[in-house]
TrEMBL record:
It catalyses: N-terminal L-alanyl-[ribosomal protein bS18] + acetyl-CoA = N-terminal N(alpha)-acetyl-L-alanyl-[ribosomal protein bS18] + CoA + H(+). InterPro entries: AcTrfase_RimI/Ard1, Acyl_CoA_acyltransferase, GNAT_dom, RimI, YpeA/RimI_acetyltransf. The keyword Transferase applies. It is an enzyme of class 2 (transferase). This is [Ribosomal protein bS18]-alanine N-acetyltransferase. Keywords: Acyltransferase, Cytoplasm, Transferase. SUPFAM superfamilies: Acyl-CoA N-acyltransferases (Nat) (SSF55729). Residues 7-151 form the N-acetyltransferase domain. The active site is at E108, Y120. It comes from the Bacteria. Acetyl-CoA binds at N113. It comes from Shewanella litoralis. Acetylates the N-terminal alanine of ribosomal protein bS18. Belongs to the acetyltransferase family. RimI subfamily.
Length: 151
């Protein structure tokens, strides 16, 4: 892990959607669309990014309704993966959600995404259920693993 002190966390805006979309396309087999990302800029959502010298390297989107927060997306540009930026983002969103009186953070992850599952388990998430055959894959479908963490 590299020194994460060289990075800053910023609240993102609609102006960041193109950069977010670029990271999505590089990082996910089924990336969100720019329109889908743009829809996450309303009062129920928080979008934060990890920046280095003004460049967006990764981001997270959280929706909070009353005391339940859901991590909808977390994404780090491939060139910066494995450097602790995902961990930096997730710790930040957990802290923010707790400050906003959330008592539970939920998420879902593709069964095949072992690196993401490992990150979530590292910060205390545990499997709470499954959605069978939820995600399409090139050769069929795979389960969505539901995970949550009490805050």
């Amino acid at each position: 892990m590299h020194n994460t002190e060289a990075y800053s966390i910023s609240v993102l805006s609609l102006d960041d959607v193109a950069a977010m979309s670029n990271i999505e396309k590089q990082s996910h087999t089924h990336p969100w669309t720019e329109a889908g990302l743009a829809d996450c800029f309303s009062p129920l959502y928080r979008a934060i990014g990890v920046m280095q010298q003004g460049e967006l390297l990764g981001f997270a989107i959280v929706q909070q309704i009353i005391d339940e927060a859901t991590l909808l997306d977390i994404c780090v540009a491939p060139a910066y993966q494995g450097q602790g930026l995902g961990l930096l983002l997730i710790r930040h969103i957990l802290s923010e959600a707790k400050q906003a009186q959330a008592v539970l953070m939920m998420l879902e992850v593709r069964e095949s995404n072992t690196s993401a599952k490992g990150l979530y388990e590292k910060v205390g998430f545990s499997e709470s259920g499954r959605r069978k055959n939820y995600y399409q894959t090139s050769d069929g479908n795979e389960d969505a693993i539901l995970m949550d963490k009490a805050l």
